[in-house]
Amino acid sequence: MQRNLVSAQLAAQALTAIHQALQTVEENLPFLIDLAAEDRRDLSALGDRTYTFTQKALHIAINHSDILPRNFDVEEFRRDLQLYDDLKQLLRRISPLVDKIEDTTLLAGHDSYHQALAVYGYVKAAGKGLGLDELVADMRSKFAKGKRSDPKTDS
Question: pTM score, two decimals?
Fold first, then answer.
């Protein structure tokens, strides 16, 4: 028998509290943007080296605004970099949690599926004559392979 990789239960009260906390987070971040993949490709990312460059440029812009065009918004530049710093700080805190949620979800799904396979095997072996034939047939249909199309005849 397959060993159980995760054994836990999320209480309804805890789940409600988590949803409320997430709603609070979302309410405090109303400006978040969801970019399409093609939009992401066209953007310049701020990495370690470019971050240092950007910090130095902001320092220069703040201390030597007289050399910049009048329409250059130093305050917007400062706000953008501060927002970047604040969001990166949140990401450093949230990312490990998201990783753990994804891993635990994967394990719970793995355990569930293997338990379902065990039940399917038991029902096939011992369920004959118990009125389970229709259920077994339905479960079996999940394993049916669809017809593969022949690339030669698909043109």
Answer: 0.77
